[in-house]
Design a protein that fits this description.
Helix content is 55%, strand content 5%. The chain has 174 residues and is mainly alpha-helical. α7 runs antiparallel to α8. The longest helix is centred in the middle third of the chain and has 27 residues.
């Protein structure tokens, strides 16, 4: 849905009503749509309802403080969103925003790892639920990811280091 500024705000209510009806929706790109604050807030309100959404991109949209607060709350309420893309200008304007988003997305990753562990322990012989580390050489072991998440959640790191390390962790998981 990126690069369609003519759709917004007129289609916002239709899209926000429809998107939760797609249970397999994993990624949502709303880049460069010149969305106003009410449209961004409306999308933020449906993020927790989209049960499998794990990636949202809002690059090229002007996010004000209200948008950032709504998005931070949405990521916190969501148990699946592990990546939110936004412009660096937002990080410069609202220093608290990247910290909150990083913390909430890391918590969501931890939740997803725990969910996968429970699936693996419930059906250890089912090939469909084998450990992610055995399926992909790119994926780090769960204990390494948990260790890095622990460092990010407990250490008082400078913002730039925190954001850089959290993005690196997200890249390792993806």
């Amino acid at each position: 849905l990126s690069n369609n500024p003519q759709m917004f705000p007129s289609c916002t209510s239709l899209l926000t009503a429809s998107l939760p009806l797609y249970p397999t929706l994993l990624r949502l790109h709303l880049d460069y749509n010149n969305m106003n604050a009410s449209s961004v807030v409306a999308f933020a309100e449906i993020i927790p309802i989209c049960r499998n959404l794990n990636y949202l991109s809002l690059l090229g949209n002007n996010l004000d403080q209200v948008c950032c607060r709504s998005l931070a709350l949405a990521v916190k309420k969501s148990k699946t969103l592990i990546s939110l893309d936004y412009d660096n200008k937002v990080a410069n304007d609202f220093e608290w925003f990247p910290k909150k988003i990083s913390i909430y997305t890391l918590q969501n990753m931890e939740h997803e790892i725990q969910r996968l562990k429970e699936i693996n322990s419930a059906t250890p012989d089912d090939p469909a639920t084998k450990s992610l580390s055995s399926q992909s050489p790119k994926t780090d072991s769960i204990s390494e990811i948990q260790k890095e998440m622990g460092i990010l959640l407990t250490k008082d790191l400078p913002t730039s280091v925190f954001v850089q390390r959290s993005h690196a962790l997200i890249d390792r998981i993806n």
